[in-house]
Design goal:
Number of strands: 20
Strand order of the largest sheet: 6-16-13-20-11-8-7
CATH architecture of the largest domain: Sandwich
Mean pLDDT: 86
Low-confidence stretches: 289-297, 373-382
Order of helices and strands: HHEEHEEHEHEHEEEEHEEEEEEHEEEE
Number of helices: 8
CATH topology of the largest domain: Jelly Rolls
Shape: elongated
Distance between the termini: 93 Å
CATH class of the largest domain: Mainly Beta
């Protein structure tokens, strides 16, 4: 075999140069994907990425930088990634978002995540359509805020005062409740892309207030009272709602960002989802220079959290979730939950609230409150 002046074989040198070129190419690709990741998440890399190669401790969250719905590893699916990352203990799931070139593998402990990272980082894995391209991995401090949360603990930590209870009713109870709602067909009032029924008190939409004439409205029916009894046993410190609105939403229907009126409804709002799930967005203003008193006319920059409300789940909005955060539903036919597209169906929401006998509010969250404001944008409670 031919050798150069130093005695090394020319074949060995050629192989070393090829390895160096591949390493440099991989490093450039990683830097590009990291830049895309940071820009997409709107955070500096120093706040977003955990560099275990330089001694930082791993987290539970692995970012797959080049495998997403538009990633470099073309055609990869959530199922493909789950097979690869699920081979390691402690695997909880993959999170993928439409239009993003990256995704996440989530583990129950940083140690479990590091074991998977050690094996899979920069290594081609047996994924169909991956063209043997290596997966580029790193650790991150958190998953994207665009991902819809569904774990009750995650929901409570993300939005203080917000509680999500899965399977608050079972499938049989769900069908019975839907049948009860359907039986009251004469009670429907048609609105834009939804229709409603009112019990206890009627909400007057043109006047945006509650009608206190109880003689023209039926009380909360027994099937609604049963839900309230169960709720009160679960949350004994909360007051018992006295008003029920049944909302029937068509699959593509949305709700504009809002908070249920502070001046006329009490401190807790609960909603039971029947028939179909939906992703609901919660938002509150960020504390930024654009929202300071010195710039009162500047628009808010919002901190947003997406929550998946599965069928039969109960959502409880209290405290900050009730007063500081607005909620909305985007008008679309499909939601992305745990990386998979879920088609919306017709959703019925049983929404229970307390009606205030004396109007008013002193919460101070003027972006969400319907009570008067002073010239600085804060609540005028003079």
């Amino acid at each position: 075999m031919a050798a150069d002046a130093s005695g090394h074989s020319t074949g060995s040198l050629s192989n070393q140069k090829r390895i160096l070129r591949e390493a440099h190419k991989l490093a450039r690709k990683r830097a590009t994907q990291l830049d895309i990741f940071a820009k997409s998440e709107n955070l500096p890399l120093s706040e977003l990425v955990v560099d275990v190669e330089n001694g930082q401790d791993p987290t539970r969250f692995i970012v797959i930088l080049n495998a997403g719905s538009t990633g470099d590893v073309g055609g990869v699916s959530v199922d493909d990634l789950e097979r690869a990352f699920g081979a390691f203990e402690g695997f909880l799931g993959v999170e993928m978002m439409l239009g993003k070139p990256y995704s996440y593998a989530v583990y129950n402990t940083p140690t479990a995540a590091f074991q998977a990272y050690t094996v899979l980082n920069n290594s081609p894995i047996p994924i169909p359509h991956s063209n043997s391209k290596p997966l580029l991995l790193t650790f991150t401090t958190r998953v994207s805020l665009d991902i819809a949360l569904s774990d009750p603990k995650d929901v409570m930590e993300a939005v203080p005062g917000l509680f999500l209870l899965h399977d608050f009713v079972d499938c049989e109870e769900e069908q019975n409740l839907l049948a009860c709602v359907k039986d009251n067909a004469n009670s429907w009032v048609s609105l834009n892309k939804r229709r409603v029924q009112h019990y206890g008190y009627r909400f007057d939409y043109p006047l945006n207030t509650v009608d206190f004439d109880t003689s023209i409205i039926d009380p909360i029916p027994p099937w609604g009272q049963e839900i309230l009894s169960r709720y009160c046993r679960t949350f004994p410190l909360h007051s018992t709602p006295d008003q029920l609105t049944v909302n029937e939403y068509w699959p593509s229907a949305g709700i504009a960002p809002h908070a249920d009126r502070h001046s006329i409804f009490g401190d807790v709002v609960i909603a039971l989802s029947l028939g179909s799930g939906v992703v609901m967005e919660f938002r509150r203003p960020e504390e930024t220079p654009s929202t300071t008193v010195s710039n009162p006319c500047k628009p808010f920059s919002y901190h947003c959290i997406n929550i998946h409300l599965p069928p039969r789940s109960l959502l409880v909005m209290s405290g900050n979730a009730r007063y500081q955060w607005e909620h909305s539903i985007r008008p679309r036919r499909t939601d992305i939950v745990h990386g998979r597209a879920i088609e919306r169906g017709t959703r019925v929401s049983l929404t229970f609230r307390n009606v205030k006998r004396v109007k008013g509010c002193e919460c101070g969250w003027t972006h969400a409150c319907d009570v008067g404001r002073d010239d600085t944008g804060r609540l005028d409670i003079g």
